[in-house]
Amino acid sequence: xxxxxxxxxxxxxxxxxxxxxxxxxxxxxxxxxxxxxxxxxxxxxxxxxxxxxxxxxxxxxxxxxxxxxxxxxxxxxxxxxxxxxxxxxxxxxxxxxxxxxxxxxxxxxxxxxxxxxxxxxxxxxxxxxxxxxxxxxxxxxxxxxxxxxxxxxxxxxxxxxxxxxxxxxxxxxxxxxxxxxxxxxxxxxxx
Length: 191
Ligand code: GDP
Ligand code: MG
What we know:
This protein is an alpha/beta fold. The protein is built from 5 helices and 6 strands; from the N terminus they run βαββαβαβαβα.
């Protein structure tokens, strides 16, 4: 699944084709209404997006976004649908994005359940997993504190980030953060 080597340094142009990119799979998990679709849609408008994607995909549960980071292009395949543990295992994800809304305490509980499931039931310990507190523009309706979420993320060896898909706040950083973490896990050890 690796790129051809002529494509490493001076590329990332619109001529690049999907076939010479690495494709990394990202699962978007979380309750209905927390903003998974809104975040995914904002990913597509990021300044890191190398070129436009097929607009036919917008109704799909599987969207592709081509990200140019550090002169290297990668395709993220964002999968946003209900999955049982068999599907979560069989899809061979490279990262998990677990989203909740800071206005909805139940959605936070669901997110924590997802973290527990990934790390303990499925015993996936090495894959980057990010706990995403969305809707931080609705600060006066906040039901989950930053401290609480940060500490649960730490407990499950996850990154924590706060976003607003509505304001496009920290969404670029999230996209790039997901890709950076995936690349780190795919970099050979230098010992
Ligand atoms: P999904 O079910 O997780 O895909 O959630 P959606 O992306 O469909 O969002 C559910 C609702 O929350 C929609 O009305 C969105 O406009 C709204 N929403 C999503 N993200 C945000 C956000 O960051 N702030 C606010 N205020 N609303 C948001
Ligand atoms: Mg949705």
